[in-house]
Each structure stands twice: as structure tokens, then as C-alpha cells.
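FAQ: What does the model actually see?

It sees only this:
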Amino acid sequence: MITLNHYLWVSIILFSLGILCIVLRRNTLMVYMGLEMNLNAANLALVAFSSFSGRIEGQVLVVFIIAIAAAEVAVGLAILVALYRKIQSVGTDDVRVLRG
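And it is asked to produce this:
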């Protein structure tokens, strides 16, 4: 039987991989993917706690977080496209170029 600890361990591993991706990568798209992994790890923990406690508030919160994450994806990818069009690169060192 899968317990709350199993879900939390998966969430911890997912969050740790996201942090590693943020810290070790130089590509902005990979850093962005690491941020999304962290967000999904937090969502997994919220749903697990909500499911095992028998309350629905955590799952409702996750729906709002996913909606906000969809808007974040649109803005983040628009910034990456603008960066690529301007300097033909998406490296983290090149982000300073977008300053007015």
C-alpha cells in the first residue's frame, strides 16, 4: 500500500532534482524547467497531504497554483523568445542584455 511517506519522498526527490537543475545549468530554459519541477513537487506534497487528511482545500489550492503556473509559462517563454531574438542565445549570463 502506498502511504503518505511514499508521496513525500517522491516530492522531496523531485524538488531536489529541480534545485540541482537550477544551480548546475547555464541554459535559461533548463533553469526554467527546474523551477517548474520545484512547483510540481510542492503541488504533489499539497495533494498528498490533502488526500490523506480527507480535506479538499489542498487540492483546490493546487488548481489555482496550476492556473497561475500556466500564466507564468506564457510570460517566461515570451521572455526567452525575446532573449533569443535579440542575441541568438538563451544562456543565463546573457540575461543582462534585456535591461533597457
